[in-house]
Write a structure and sequence with these properties.
The structure is a single chain. The chain has 3 helices and 6 strands, in the order βββαβααββ. The chain is α+β, with helices and mostly antiparallel strands. It has a 4-stranded mixed β-sheet, covered by helices on one side. It has a two-stranded antiparallel sheet with strand order 2-3. β2 and β3 form a beta hairpin. The protein is globular. It starts with 8 loop residues before the first strand and ends with a strand. The relative contact order is 0.30.
């Protein structure tokens, strides 16, 4: 935790659904992009010696609110398993940084 002193907050911006810098494209909804975004978020948190349970806020950006709600259980189960229920916002946007990107997370964590 040398990079983040005890009691500090970390702002994790732009956690997209990317693997090896390639967009995860899913024509059948956003469940896979949600999983990949959470995997990426957990990796960043792990490097700061934190976990999903360290989240104090989670904003979600999606290009399709209806598809997101159809796959919301993926997010809810993952956060619940970590004992995490952070406040946040769900925002529908016209597009994200990459044209095929469907979901992006913006997280704030504290130890």
């Amino acid at each position: 935790k040398a990079a983040m002193p005890e009691g500090a907050r970390g702002f994790l911006d732009s956690i997209p659904a990317l693997r090896n810098r390639e967009c995860i494209i899913c024509g059948e909804g956003v469940a896979i992009p949600i999983r990949v975004s959470l995997d990426n978020l957990e990796e960043v948190l792990r490097k700061a010696e934190m976990s999903l349970s360290s989240l104090v806020r989670l904003n979600i950006y999606t290009t399709d609110i209806d598809q997101f709600f159809a796959a919301h259980e993926v997010l809810a189960k993952r956060l619940s398993a970590a004992g995490c229920q952070p406040p946040g916002s769900l925002l529908g946007v016209a597009r994200l940084a990459f044209p095929d990107l469907l979901v992006e997370l913006e997280a704030t964590a504290a130890d």
